[in-house]
Task: structure prediction
Amino acid sequence: MVPYKNKAWKEEMAVRLDFNHVMARFMGEHHGVFDGEIESLLPEAKEIHNDIKEKRARGDLPFMDLPDQDVKPVLELAKQLKKRCESFVVLGIGGSALGNIAIHGALNHPFYNELSKTGRKRAPRIYVLDNVDPDHLAGLLDILDLKKTCFNVITKSGGTAETMANFLVCQKALIDALGREAHGDRIVVTTDATKGNLKRVADREGYPCLVIPDGVGGRFSVLTPVGLLSAALAGVNIRELLAGASFMERRCRKMKVWENPAYFNAAVHHILNTKRGKHISVMMPYSNALYGVADWYRQLWAESLGKRRSLDGREIFAGQTPVKALGTTDQHSQIQLYVEGPNDKVVTFLAVEGYGRKMEIPKSYEEMEGIAYLGGHTLEGLIQAEQRATEYALTHHRRPNLTLTLKAINPFSLGQLFMLYEIQTVFSGGLYRINPLDQPGVEDGKVATYALMGRNGYESQKEALGAAKPKDDKYVLAL
Ligand code: PA5
Result:
């Protein structure tokens, strides 16, 4: 084994992308990408690459510089919180929650919260609350010992209705349990440095604050304190996570599409989407641990690229619909559709070369061939064989698919994944000629919620909502 964190270790841990089965050579002309199509993108790619470089130099793409941040404040706060709580609840939504879920799912024990305190190395249980379902929140409050619980309220804008509502409910529960005075060191805020209502509340209440750097949007914020605090608290090596992101960021500096994994993946998806009718991008990890990454990717790809207008104002309705599936589970639910249904998808397998645990399948019932063949193999061998089998089935039916292989699931490889897909998304924005960093559709929904909930200043939107959506009772069926 190469020594940990050596240059050679990092090279060994590099994620690998296999694009064979998206290329026309294997998929045929109707469903695959020709080398020449990649070549013809080169002038445009050069333009986008230079634009990314300029924006980065101007400080407009600060997510790319996150690997260099000073993580001491996060580590220090995590150390203090560890002494204070046995449960830690993240309150956030979208980009202020999905990165946390992805990190914990990938890097913690699969049943982390069920482990004993010793099993968790005295770190708190971690919960991420990203909905305002009353049954769910009430259920969580039922099981928490509020005297030993801390909350991390995360919102970049400092005003998202769901997060603020959950905050108010949890704050009251804490005050009821501990008293006004004592509740203050049980809430930590992660938000903008100066703007937003949550920042005002934090200043008034004296809650400790971590800052989401300017210009880092929600879905690009997993490597800011948004994702890092709860990760550090659970014992994840956040420096290694950032080292992985840095390693990938360097790999994605090359202008040549063929040599830049983020650009190549973006180019392939763009061609398949705009020229071959692949309107759906499926991410299918063969690992329960990486399922949260597929969810994180779903938001990144959907919110960044799903845009009505191009930068020059034309109506283009850009974007691919991202879908998550889990191998092998969804082989028994989705694969029939992917193999024989509409040929409108490109599938990305997330494969793992070395799982953390070895599980041998015992030899038994040797007289029954239908069972005996499994004996002596490992579960790792089986899940890897099933991934290759699904890849074979898709390829055989000319369904474009690519495989991203992780040597192992660790902070270094996860950091690479995050950075790869973030850069890929920005480059894709260039190919679609849209702004991948805004989300006007999400903002529309937020404004409509404010209006419906009677927030002052949103009266005209409430009227407009009523007028825009008249309903006819004849279309409402009571069964
Ligand atoms: O990526 C985004 O910008 C959004 O998905 C936000 O993360 C989400 O809407 C939550 O916003 P906020 O962090 O402001 O509460």
Observations:
- The chain has a mean pLDDT of 95.
- Residues 3-57+241-432 form a domain with the Rossmann fold fold (CATH 3.40.50.10490).
- The pocket of 5-phosphoarabinonic acid is lined by residues 93-96, 155-157, 160, 163, 217-219, 303, 439, 442 (CB under 6 Å).
